[in-house]
Amino acid sequence: MRALIVTRTLKKSPEPSNTEAPSAVVAVRLSGHDVEVDFVRAVDLDIAPGVVTDAGDGDEWPRVHAQLLESDNRVAGVVVTGNEDGAHHVTSEISGSLADIGYTIPGQAWTYWHLGPGPGPDYLEEQRGRDRAHHTGRSMADNLLGVARALSVSPLRARG
Questions:
Q1: pLDDT tens digits, 62-83
Q2: How far apart, in whole angstroms, are the C-alpha atoms of residue 147 and residue 73?
Q3: What's the mean per-residue pLDDT of the chain?
Q4: Residue 52, Cα to own-chain centre: how many angstroms?
Q5: CB 86 within 8 A of CB 112
Q6: What is the pTM of this model?
Q7: Alpha helices, H only, the chain
């Protein structure tokens, strides 16, 4: 089985990413179940704005799109980090958008980390809250994998 994690961190490689770090918890759990996991850090790419698959010369989205299509099934989850980010709202908005374009979103297919309102340390600087984020990240991976396996046996078919 194959999975793709697309991070929308604001930090370009090779700078450590507060979003990529908890995403790695999900990746490690999936890898432990023989899932091949690839990462794409969107900020490192030249992705043209718009809603087309290929916006022409220089657009790197077609490569990411191909990786998405190579991933097994269409099952997705969300990882959020930050302070005052409205993690539940962000998760529901992204999950709803993914469902609109054909992804299946299992229950508890999310994890987030933040230390509450106001400025504060980043995930990479702080140990507090990580246990819960890692627990939900591992649960997220298990639920994503369970649904992906179920869909591989009995795929959803759009009738029209």
A1: 999 999 988 878 899 999 987 6
A2: 9
A3: 91
A4: 21
A5: no
A6: 0.89
A7: 20-31, 61-70, 87-100, 130-153
